[in-house]
Specification:
The chain is globular, with a radius of gyration of 16 Å. Strands 1-2-4-3-5 form a five-stranded mixed β-sheet. 23% of the residues lie in helices and 28% in strands. It has 166 residues and is of the alpha/beta class. The protein has five helices and five strands.
């Protein structure tokens, strides 16, 4: 997995693709708000009617990270080190049931809840370098089945590609 960005979580999924699929909240008239910072790491086509989006959610805000530790990992990564972080993950497959979506494709959300490696992930985002992720995928808490989860290695081996609509 590689993380790209300015070293801060990016959150355009909920104001972009999520709105295209489910529109804004009917009561508030606003996009859904995840109430947590997250890193968007990868996306690719599953097939013509589905797209995989991958996220990493830190368990503590990135502002709590010690700057010195982040800078140490940045320096190590610039020397070629690819550190490992650990997460528990879910795979959710959701699709708009209202028939109102501009893009009715199913969204495969692979979400990694970071248990260890907060400094490493921020350093990877800052340095635009890869970090390995040891991910423990829980099927019991996912909105996807074992057959779907079995497809993840092949999907993650595909090239990164953004969803195009229209």
């Amino acid at each position: 997995m590689s993380s790209r960005g300015s070293g801060r979580p990016i959150s355009h999924y909920f104001s972009g693709e999520q709105v295209t699929a489910w529109r804004v909240d009917q009561f508030w008239g606003l996009p859904q708000y995840p109430h947590t910072p997250y890193f968007r790491t990868f996306e690719t086509a599953v097939d013509a009617d589905a797209h995989l989006y991958e996220f990493v959610v830190p368990m503590v805000p990135p502002t709590w990270n010690e700057r010195g530790r982040v800078e140490e990992y940045v320096a190590l990564m610039e020397q070629g080190t690819a550190p490992t972080a650990v997460a528990i993950s879910t795979l959710d497959i959701c699709q708009s049931a209202l028939g109102l979506a501009e893009d009715p494709a199913a969204h495969w959300g692979l979400t990694h809840f970071l248990l260890d490696g907060h400094h490493k992930l921020e350093a990877a985002a800052t340095a635009r370098r890869p970090v390995r992720l040891l991910s423990l995928l829980t099927l019991g808490e996912s909105l996807a089945g074992a057959e779907d989860a079995a497809r993840l290695p092949a999907l993650r081996a595909q090239s990164r590609s953004a969803r195009t609509t229209g």
